Amino acid sequence: MSPPAVGMCFDRTYPPLAIVEFAERLEAGGVDQLWVIEDCFYTAGISLAAVALARTQRLHVGIGILPAVARNPAITAMELATLANLAPGRVIAGIGHGVQSWMEQMGARTPSPLTTLEEVITVVRQLIRGERVNVTGREVRLAEVQLDQPPAVVPPVLAGVRGPRSLALAGRVADGVVLAEAAGAAYVRGAVQQSNASDSFRVSVFSSLCVEADRRTAYRCMAPVVANWLLSPNPAIDAHSHADELHERFAAGGADALVDMPREWWLELGAIDTFEDALEHLTLLGDAGAHDVSLFPAPELEVGRHQVDDVVALAAALH
């Protein structure tokens, strides 16, 4: 496998104006991608993406992840087409189920997230290809809808999903998949198999970033994050080669007990370690089938600003 394209995620807690600085610094440093994060009820993905694209010339901007039910799919297609016309070939669209408790808060929860996601992704892809759409689905109903200005370069639409049924759905109806943090090489390989998709299927991975000169410092910093992953069902953690031992260690000693995990365990969880270890993590993901890996910074803005340099250095070393 070729080395994956390297990117950085723009944390949901960062102030919107910071998108300009991050986008410009990443492009100047030769980084391939910037992914903007849309979580309820933080900053919005479409507007952040528009600014990042407007302030750069080469940087690819991914939108991760638009909840399928937050917008009418015709509006989602209009937004994506507009961005793609403004920055041809530089837009990557992500659409997912959305966190169901957030959808409940908005009065938009669907009784069938799988069916809804399939209908939405199918219709959005048809519309941005310029097709006239008539559909009466379980959740999506459109009559004679056609975009006036479909993009000349159609952006890929990836499914932001995690479980086996959703991955199989992605393989049927999407151009690729976005896998969230904690995805190691084993999970990536499993996701590729479960999607049963064609060779053109794109696998983008979000991975946590914490590069330190001393491994233990990085482990101590990220142990609470890993502890949070262990508190909820997580297919990426389940695919970890030491998943049972991870849970046992956490149950016995909490987050502090995770700090002393072997290096090989940490290597599966993220770009968390020394620079050389982070580089190895990226290489392993690429070998497993990841086409893109975008690194999640710390939620503190000042720390994230320093981590831009780490992403630039990793991208340069990998390519």
In short:
The chain is of the alpha/beta class and 319 residues long.
Could you characterize the architecture of this molecule?
The protein has 13 helices and 11 strands. The chain is α/β, with parallel strands linked by helices and 319 residues long. The protein has one domain (5-211, 272-318): Alpha-Beta Barrel (TIM Barrel). Strands 1-2-3-4-7-8-9-11 form an 8-stranded parallel barrel, surrounded by 8 helices. A two-stranded antiparallel ribbon has the order 5-6. The protein starts with a strand and ends with a helix.
Shape: globular
Provide the CATH superfamily. Answer: Luciferase-like domain
Mean pLDDT equals: 96
Q: How does the helix and strand content classify structurally?
A: alpha/beta
- Fraction in beta strands: 15-25%
User: How many domains?
Assistant: 1
Sequence of secondary-structure elements: EHEHEHEHHEEEHEHEHHHHEHEH
- Widest beta sheet: strand line-up: 1-2-3-4-7-8-9-11
Helical region count?
13
How many beta-strand elements?
A: 11
* Oligomeric state of the chains present here: single chain
CATH architecture call: Alpha-Beta Barrel
Looking at the structure, the CATH topology is TIM Barrel
- Helical amount among residues, as a percent range? 40-55%
Largest sheet: 8 strands, parallel, barrel
Tell me the span between the first and last alpha carbons.
13 Å
Which CATH class is shown? Alpha Beta
User: What is the radius of gyration computed over CA atoms, rounded to a whole number of angstroms?
Assistant: 19 Å
Q: What are the segments in which pLDDT stays under 50 over at least 5 consecutive residues?
A: none
